[in-house]
Structure formats: C-alpha cells, structure tokens
Amino acid sequence: MDLERISTIDTAIDLSCNHFEGEIPKSLKDLSSLRLLNLSHNSLKGSLPMELGKLNTLEALDLSWNRLTGKIPQELTAMNFLEFLNLSQNHFVGRIPQGSQFSTFENDSYGGNLDLCGPPLSKQCGTSDSSHVPQPLEKEEEEENESYFFSGFTRESVVIGYNFGLVVGTIMWSLMFKYRKPKWFVEFFDALMPPKRRRSKKRAQRRRT
C-alpha cells in the first residue's frame, strides 16, 4: 500500500519481521527527523541506496536478515550521529567504508556477508576465499527448494510404499496358500531339494496313491 503522505517528523520506523519484498525506497531520505530505522528480517533485495546517507539525524540502522546485494555506499559515512549499525546476513560485497562513525562498528555489524572485506573484518581485500563460490539468489533458492522437496519425497514415499507392499503381499500370500499351493512354488522348491530326497518324496507320493 502506498502512503500518499508521510510525516517528516517521525523519529522511529520499525517494519521488521514482515514479508516485505522489493528494493528500499530512496524516498526515505526525506524523513529528516528520523532517528531509528529498522527493516530487518524481511525479503528486501537490490542495492543499498546511497541516498540514506542524507539521514543526518539517524542514530540506529538495522537492515539485517534481508537479501540486499552490492557494495555498501561510502555516502553512508555522512551519518555522523549513527551509533548502531546492523547489516549482517545479507549479500553485500566489496570493501567496508571507513570514516566517521563507521570506524567504530565491529564485526557483528557485518556478519554473514561472505564477500565483504576490510576492517573491522579479518579478511583482507584483494584475497578470495576458494571455499566460497557466490551464486545468484534465484539459484540458491531453487536448490534449497529442490533439496527440501526430494528429502521429504524419498522419506515419506519409502515408508508408505514399504507398508503398502507388506500388507498387499501378506494378503496375497495367505489367499494363495489357503486354497492350493501354486505349481510354480512346488516346482521351485523341488528343484532345490537334493536328488536323494527328491526320489524318496516321489516314492512316498506313489504309496499314497
């Protein structure tokens, strides 16, 4: 839902833990009195707007647990009153901006972004981690959905199929021997008997006849 009028005197916006999608609107820069902005635990995509650097009074920014990509804009270092920053669990890449308040943030502010480098992280820029091969978000989601589907499919189908086959087999087996022994069954086990035992069995049958 689009709001036709947004109050510019709001000091806090907390829209965390929802299912919001799409990109972060650049119009947030017009909230000149904003002190807290929390959009964490959503499904926001795209790059982080450099226009957010114009929020001169912002003291807390939490964009964690989204799907944001690209570099962290150097313009964000213009937020001189920023005391809390959490950009963790996204897909940011490149060097972390330095200067002003950004020099005071620690590793927790950037955790889970495997392609970020530079202070305060121990990973130096210009080095690549061979154990991590970044993939497109759509590919990751597709593989995750497929693995979840097939894991549930094999587990449930094997149990159901085994139980169904056991019941049907038991019923057919009991009916088959209730009325008469099938000819193939007799011939099969006769073939497994030693020759001596087979001859003695035939003699016993002749005596009964």
TrEMBL record:
Keywords: Cell membrane, Glycoprotein, Leucine-rich repeat, Membrane, Receptor, Repeat, Transmembrane, Transmembrane helix. It comes from the Eukaryota. InterPro entries: Leu-rich_rpt, LRR_dom_sf. Its main location: membrane. It is a single-pass type I membrane protein. It is found in: Cell membrane. The chain crosses the membrane at residues 159-177. Belongs to the RLP family. This is Receptor-like protein 9DC3. It comes from Solanum pennellii. The gene is LOC114075208.
